[in-house]
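Q: What residues go here?
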């Protein structure tokens, strides 16, 4: 049964007769939740900070975005820049194409934006299979347009990235240093880990860009707290790895840090 506070009536005319139907009313808190949900899902963008609307939009259709042939994860952000100025961004949900609205500068009102004729630079904030998030510059394959702002009615582009330099978001203390040299390397790379405190054994793991672990070992610091380990570019089975970028991750329960290295044969 519906009480008087939670119901309403709708009148319809059928064959000249008026009929009244009782319908439930939505509680105000339900409406509020719905509004908040729409607001937050529509404003989920957090990394890139594009210029506000200038009233002069230019449409960019992104038909696909991949990293090493794998589609970017939902929640990734795609942005377009005019030099260092972010002039438009969008959050990828789970379906392509997506539309990025870029905003042209308005000299009449003193609003920042892109300059027609300048080249577009695309960036993504995304996650690799290991869970590391980073801002990367994306390669672009133009499908419509010439890659310059304001060309034609719109631009259509697919974003393709084959190598990633992920930012190091981690919980390691600043006093604990992790170096890898030479980088890029050919025959051998040396890892140096300086640990002034928590001098326990440290696990060193190496992954390819698809997230597969290809090498791991446990290393211990000397009396000064330093770890020196040399790696020759072979996997755990002694096979030589192909040229490319790899992730190195170190952890010992007190800290975790990762770094990108490049192997060039």
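A:
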């Amino acid at each position: 049964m519906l009480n008087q506070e939670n119901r309403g009536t709708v009148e319809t005319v059928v064959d000249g007769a008026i009929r009244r139907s009782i319908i439930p009313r939505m509680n105000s808190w339900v409406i509020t939740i719905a509004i908040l949900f729409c607001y937050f899902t529509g404003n989920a963008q957090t990394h890139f900070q594009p210029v506000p609307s200038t009233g002069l939009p230019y449409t960019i259709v992104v038909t696909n975005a991949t990293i090493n042939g794998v589609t970017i994860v939902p929640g990734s952000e795609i942005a377009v820049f005019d030099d260092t100025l972010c002039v438009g961004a969008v959050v990828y949900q789970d379906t392509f194409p997506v539309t990025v609205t870029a905003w042209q500068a308005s000299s009449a009102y003193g609003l920042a934006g892109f300059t027609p004729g300048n080249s577009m630079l695309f960036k993504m904030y995304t996650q690799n299979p290991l869970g590391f998030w980073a801002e990367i510059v994306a390669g672009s394959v133009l499908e419509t347009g010439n890659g310059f702002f304001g060309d034609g009615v719109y631009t259509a582009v697919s974003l393709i990235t084959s190598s990633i330099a992920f930012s190091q978001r981690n919980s390691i203390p600043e006093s604990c240093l992790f170096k890898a040299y030479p980088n890029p390397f050919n025959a051998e790379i040396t890892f140096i880990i300086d640990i002034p405190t928590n001098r326990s054994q440290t696990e060193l793991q190496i992954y390819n860009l698809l997230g597969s672990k290809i090498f791991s070992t446990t290393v211990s610091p000397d009396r000064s707290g330093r770890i020196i380990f040399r790696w020759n570019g072979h996997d755990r089975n002694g096979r030589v790895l192909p040229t490319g970028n790899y992730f190195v991750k170190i952890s010992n329960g007190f800290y975790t840090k990762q770094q990108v290295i490049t192997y060039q044969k």
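A: Context that may help when evaluating the design: Residues 65 and 244 are 20 Å apart (CA to CA). The first helix runs from residue 28 to 42.
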